[in-house]
Amino acid sequence: MGAWKSTKARLAACTVAMLGSSLATAAGAADKPEKFTFLTNWYAEAEHGGFYQAIAKGLYRDAGLDVTIRMGGAQVNTMQLLAAGQADCMMGGDIQVMKAWENGVHAVTVAATFQKDPQVLIAHDDVKDVADMKTRTILIGTDAHTTYWPWAKSTFGFTDAQTRPYTFNIQPFVADRNIVQQGYLSSEPYSIQKAGVKTTVFLLADLGYPPYSETIICLDRTLQARKAAVAAFVKASMEGWKSYLADPAPADALIKKDNPNQTDDDLSHGVAQMKAMGIVTGGDAGRLGIGVITDARMKKTYDMLVANKLLDPAKVDVKQTYTTEFVKDLRVLP
What are the structural domains of the chain? Predict the structure, then answer.
């Protein structure tokens, strides 16, 4: 009997030890951050600051995520990479998503970091209003023809005859006062300023151009399979943006590591422009929170595309291209 009790005791002790080991393994697995890859739309810059800040401040880690930021670039087709499963979510724009649906790619906008698209038209300082540009040569990029240019023509009376290709070189503008060129709020206007040329800068969003920018986009299948991870990523990212605008230093160090071409001057100028123009915190974000998207705003963009024959309404239902689920209750207020 004594031997049996001894054997039973040893078995019980072994069982407890095995159970303890299993529980420890399960706890360790539960504590291990979930990997998540986010693809940006360009090389690292201030306009990506909130995402880098969420890494620098441990916000993603606190949310249970191990986030990798993968940079886009001039020759990177981000939507193609997303569709191929090379990222969990990507940075883009609502026009891009609506066009993706037209082409059979079921991408969904889940948050909008930029309440205003930073697209600008830059004129010399003798141009005082939009009407003055109707007699100028306007340099625009290829993408303009499927985004803002049809809207600008129908809104302001510009014509294709006055356009020339923009080669992402500011020298033609610097040399010719009759030229107007496209640009990005924090980029070309600053380069032109440093070249000693005075300008008038028109932010298209302030003139009625409706799209969001720097949006977070995921495939619909990702939203179904990894809903909790996407929710955690969105929340931590918006908290990252609030933190970045208050103190950009932690993120800036990571941005310069990823993109050594970015200087402290470039980064500080980018942050200053975003603050001054309300790019992140303006519009609905001021009362509903950073990252918010609304039904009314999405419909404006959709209607603009349809009106300018840039989207086939028979192929795209606007309500399938976005969801407010991940941002409507966040309330990460500026």
Answer: 34-116+211-320 (3.40.190.10), 119-207 (3.40.190.10)
For the chain, give the longest Cα–Cα distance. Answer: 107
Cβ neighbours around 16 below 10 Å, total: 10
What is the β-pairing status of strands 65-70 and 137-140?
A: unpaired
One-letter identity of residue 129: D
- Closest to 271 in 3D by CA, of 282, 261, 259, 279: 279
Q: Would you state the structure tokens that stand for residue 24, as one six-digit string?
A: 């420890």
CA-to-CA distance for 308 and 303, rounded, in angstroms?
9
> Count of CB atoms within 10 A of residue 225's CB?
11
Neighbouring C-beta atoms of residue 25, cutoff 10 Å: 10
* Cα Rg of the chain (Å, integer): 25
CA–CA dist 299, 310 (Å, integer): 14
Where helices occur in 67-205 by DSSP H, the ranges are 78-83, 94-102, 148-156, 171-175, 188-194
Contacts of residue 294, Cβ cutoff 8 Å, sequence gap at least 6: 284, 288, 324
- Of 329, 244, 242, which is closest to residue 290 (Cα–Cα)? 242
Report the SS3 class of residue 210.
coil
Please list the residues that pair with 35 across neighbouring strands: 66
pLDDT digits (tens, 9 = 90+) for 86-128: 999 999 999 999 999 999 999 999 999 999 999 999 999 999 9
Residues 115 and 285 sit within 8 Å (Cβ to Cβ): yes
pTM score above 0.85: yes
SS3 of 288, please? helix
The strand pairing partners of 109, in sequence order, are 217, 322
